[in-house]
Amino acid sequence: MSSRKRGMAHAGRRTSEDGVESSISEAAAVLAKCQHAIAFTGAGISVESGIPDFRSPGGLWERFDPVEYAHISTFLRDPERSWEMFLAVEQIIEEAAANAAHRALAELEREGVLGAVVTQNIDGLHQAAGSTVVHEFHGTHAELHCVDCGRRYGRERVLETIPPHCSCGQALKPAVVLFGEAIPAGVSEAAFSDADACDGLLVVGTSALVFPAAQIPYQVAGREKPVIVVDREPTPLTREVSCLYLRGTAGEILPRLVTEIMAKRAGGETPSVASGGFGGQEQVPG
Ligand SMILES: [Zn+2]
Questions:
Q1: Cβ 131 vs Cβ 105: under 8 Å
Q2: Of 89, 198, 265, 285, which residue is most buried, by most CB within 10 angstroms?
Q3: Same domain for 113 and 146
């Protein structure tokens, strides 16, 4: 694997202030030239919003064995049991607010760098921060879904009874993808289509271990487009995918990355933007 050596070098990069700064500048130079990059996010971006990674120590999976509680077969057999976990998730999400990292990605969309966010999170915080094109790979906790007839409902239905019921009589579940369930076809199509067309990928807070979502960075790298990883610790991606690796928390790194991208664009280092595209003020007279 030709990219391995380079990836290892990044994984071993020191986290001194200088090292991080030079990486941010390097990543900003790459992203400043992008016009329809995508961001691929996971649990790590929402940790600073107070939503612990379910898989981390003290996370939700320590209280609720996912094999039992988060499997579609459990919900179908005993929806009340699954709702013990759904309510715990709801409480965590209700108390959370978008953080600086979510807002930075929304800013990159407005700036015409990002065309979409593909997220594995179900917390809705990208939309809360202002991102408008968000593919929620694992669904959303903001709505309820009937596995029988397909009707969807707002959260207020939860207040009635636990478990809440569809007008067809079936127990409702949050519109999240449980273990044993397929990714909603429209969402995965949109996400993979964007991964096929993007001019760069910014991976934030995910070690990309859960397939099929985890295919996305490999798909983009396979097209030889830049893959930039922001994570607190090295991940398989920083070792196996040719990329720039920015080590740190998303809330610390992303706002600085946005500032540098804006500075580079304002400095006229970006190519002119196609007509009908994004942010005309960045066009270079030519
Ligand atoms: Zn129904």
A1: yes
A2: 198
A3: no
Alpha-carbon distance 113 to 258, whole Å?
10
**Rounded to a whole number, what is the largest CA-CA distance in the chain?**
66
Identified catalytic residue from 138, 141, 145, 165? 138
Give the mean pLDDT per block of 10 residues along the chain (286 residues).
38 40 84 97 94 81 86 95 92 94 98 97 97 96 94 79 92 94 91 97 90 92 94 86 88 97 81 38 37
Q: How far is the CA of 128 from the centre of ligand 1 (A)?
A: 28
CATH code of the domain in which 78 resides: 3.30.1600.10
Q: Exposure string (b/e) for 63-100, b if CB count within 10 Å is 16 or more?
A: ebeeeebbbbebbbeebeebbebbeebbebbeebebbb
Mark whether 165 is an active-site residue: no
CA distance to 8, 66, 217, 229, per residue, from 243 (Å): 10, 32, 10, 7
Q: How far apart, in Å, are the Cα atoms of 3 and each of 8, 216, 221, 247?
A: 9, 17, 10, 19
Question: Ligand 1 centre from 154 Cα, in Å?
Answer: 14
Centroid of ligand 1 to alpha carbon of 165 (angstroms): 8
Distance CA 200, CA 45 (A): 19
